[in-house]
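step: validate -> pass
step: tokenize input -> pass
step: predict -> running
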Amino acid sequence: MVIANHPSRTAKGLGIWGRHAPKEYRARHAAAPRVAIGMEGAPGHQAARRKSGLDTAHGSRGLYRGYPMGGFDQMVATLGGGSDALLGQGLHWTITASSDSHGHWREGGADFWPGEYAKTWVFAAPTSPDLLKGLRTGRMSVATGGLFEQLGVTAAAADLAAAMGDTLGSRGRRDARHHPFPPCAQRQCRRDGARS
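step: predict -> pass
step: emit ->
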């Protein structure tokens, strides 16, 4: 399973993709849809601070030259951006949040401990196969800063319904709606591979 790391780190501005573009991710997914499943939406190094003597990238949050948006990569954070384009083309493309921890900020580094700040919540039974299936199908959500511990979404169109990670074809219907639901009623939530 491959999740692309740092999608827009080489971007030189908002709306500029840098070395990696949605077209590349679409090609990877087309070549191996059960392997190339998504991208890191909330990059690590969220504790990075501007420091004298460091270049713009290494002195900015996420080491992103000042272009993470609320801690998220611009491919994810921009409405209609790269991630939205991939989803709009029908790809099951997931987003993760990572710590990418090389050195904790209290010890002079630019990172948090894994799961301390950025979290990927996968709705899965406590087994490796279901955890991997949850990642592949998008039965997951991400957060930074402990904003929530559970999130679920259902969508419905007339007599059709889909939960997080499912596909709902509305076929042009205008009566589609969505509403939250308790996500862990059927499955146990897992975060960073640990049982919660």
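step: describe -> Residues 176-196 have pLDDT under 50 and may be disordered.
step: cleanup -> pass
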